[in-house]
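Example 395, ligand pyridoxal-5'-phosphate.
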Amino acid sequence: MKPLEERIADQVRNIPRSGIRDFFELVQGRDDVISLGVGEPDFSAPWHIREAAIYSLEKGQTSYTSNLGLLSLRESIAKYVEKQFHVSYDPASEVLVTVGVSEALDLVCRALLNPGDEVIYHEPCYVSYSPSIALAYGKPVAIQTRVEDEFVLKAEDIAEKITDRTRLLFLNFPTNPTGAVEPVDELQKIADLAIEHDLIVISDEIYSELLYGEDSGMKPGTHVSIASLPGMQERTVLLHGFSKAFAMTGFRLGYACAPPVLTEAMMKIHQYSMLCAPMMSQVAAIEALENGAGEVEKMRRAYARRRNLMLKRFEEMGVPCFAPGGAFYMFPDIRKFGLTSQEFAMRLLEEEDVAVVPGDAFGEAGQGCVRACYATSYEQLEIALDKIESFVKRL
Ligand code: PLP
């Protein structure tokens, strides 16, 4: 018999396992470790949202839904997106409910790429972009953003990478893992470039509610979606979901908003692979969109307080750290200690029982930084920061 390893499809064998997962296998089962690792809210989903899911089950709503998702949910999504992003979508033909933004990323790649098509994305970035592109036989083309430029993605750097095979441009603001928010004037230049080169933009806006504006981030910032810029809605697939702002990771629910032809193409794959997203999650999501704003703001303020604590403490310890405009990650620059990101993270774990993710897990551009997620209680963060301080003092 041929070895089973040789039966694995080339494009699967060739993609690496997620650097985050590898690192966190080391932490599994260790209760003594404070984890600033996995990018997941420490809050449970707000009670009224959980209650909506429970009632849905009690009422026996346990069937499939339309492939696109419940029409009532798509209507709530269209209303929410119009208010939040100032773009209006037709709930009947331009909104697809997916199993998390993760599924939507996969669908968009499979629906829009032919083998060898190039996709430009910015690093450091969410770990699934490059594999999702490669699994759809596309060619991932990374642009490095730098801490020195506050991780601003420059239109001129994108322009340099565009070839006659470039089809898609992936954007993610606020960015995982840096928390960077793109300045609007640069976003406009990127939009101009997308129009000039006829690119479709995939805009992952999953952290768009978690923005830290004036008053040291205690007031919410304003999110600008590239889809809302002139001429962009017709060439943008806007991805959003419930995992982060609503603390609903386990509900596995997201959505894609796009022109009807693109929505239909993604729906074709979704209907054969997923059929539909779970109904109880969809019912809970309606409750989240209709009545969840107050709880989202409470969580955002808690994150803002933690962000400020981390910024202050890193500054006091002399660890340079970019002030993130959004999401719930700090991405301190540890180059001055002469260790690689991996060495820093491993030693911090071994010597102080604090887990952070090596920055290069998010692409080469993350080398020299580590990601510390502050979706952990204020009290735990204080302990973790004391431990980080003891560690860096010894270096
Ligand atoms: N996009 C980004 C930028 C993320 O950080 C994550 C999760 O960490 C996802 C997408 C996946 O989210 P979901 O839980 O909706 O699949």
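Summary: Residues 47-292 form a domain with the Aspartate Aminotransferase; domain 2 fold (CATH 3.40.640.10).
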